[in-house]
Amino acid sequence: MLRFFRQIRQKLLTENRTSKYLLYALGEILLVVIGILLALQIDTWNTEHKDRQKEKEYLRNLMEDLDTQQQQVNAQIEHEALMRSLCQKALKQLIAEPINFDSVNAYLTTVTRRTFVINDPTFQDLKSSGNILIIRDNSLRKKLLSFYQYLEYSALVIKTDNETSVASLRNFLNDNRVVNMNYTNTLDVAAGVDFSLEAVHIPWARSLQEELAKDKPLLLAVLNRVGARGRTSSVHLDLMNRLQLRIKDMKQEIDNYIGK
C-alpha cells in the first residue's frame, strides 16, 4: 500500500503537476490523521470497556462484603441485646429484698464483651490502589465513603466502650465481691473461647456477698455500674440498627447501579 502511494507521488512530480501533488499530499496526510484518530478511539473504547468490567467486579465484591458485614452486625445485635437483658435482670435482683445472689451470679458472670469486626477488603483495595475513581457515579462514590466512615465510627465506639466501661465493670464486680466469678463452669468471650477453670465450691463466698447487701452506698454503686453497662449495650444496639439500615440502602444503591 505504501509503495502504491509512493508511485503516485513520483508520477505527479515527474509530470510537474505540482497543484495536484499538493492536493494528493494533503489527502494522504488527512488519511493518516484519520487513521490515528480511529486507532486512538479504538484504544479509548477498549480501555473504557475494561474499566467498566473492573467497575462491575468491584461492585459485586462490595456486595459480598456487605453481606458478610450484615452477618457481623446481626451477631453484634444478638450479643448486645442479651447483655442488656442480663443487666436488666441483675438490677431487679439487686433491688429485691432479700437479694437472690444465685441469680445475681448467674446474670452478671455472663456479661461479657464482643469485638465488632469490620469487613471491608474491597473498599480498602479501592482506596489504596486509587481505583475508587473507577466508579463513575460521583453520588455512589460519596455514599460508599460515607457508609464506611460510619462503619469505622461504630467499630471505634464499641472498641472504646469494651476497653473502658465494659472492662471496668468486671473488675469492679470482682474487686468488691459483688459476684462469685467461680460461680460458673463456663465463661465464654466473644470468640467462643472458654477460659474458665472448673468451678470449686466456696462455702463462705455467699456470706461475703450477703454482707454487701448491708452496705447501701456500695450497693448503690453496684446498681449504677450495672445500669451503665446495660445502657452501653443500648448505645451499641442503636449503632447496629442504624448500620443495618445503611447496609440495606447501600446494597440497594449498588444493585440499582449495576442494573443500569
Automatic annotation (TrEMBL):
Lineage: superkingdom: Bacteria
Entry-linked InterPro entries: DUF6090 (IPR045749)
Pfam family, one: DUF6090
Transmembrane regions listed in the UniProt entry: 21-42
Keyword annotations: Coiled coil, Membrane, Transmembrane, Transmembrane helix
Residues in coiled coil: 52-79
The protein's name in its UniProt record: Uncharacterized protein
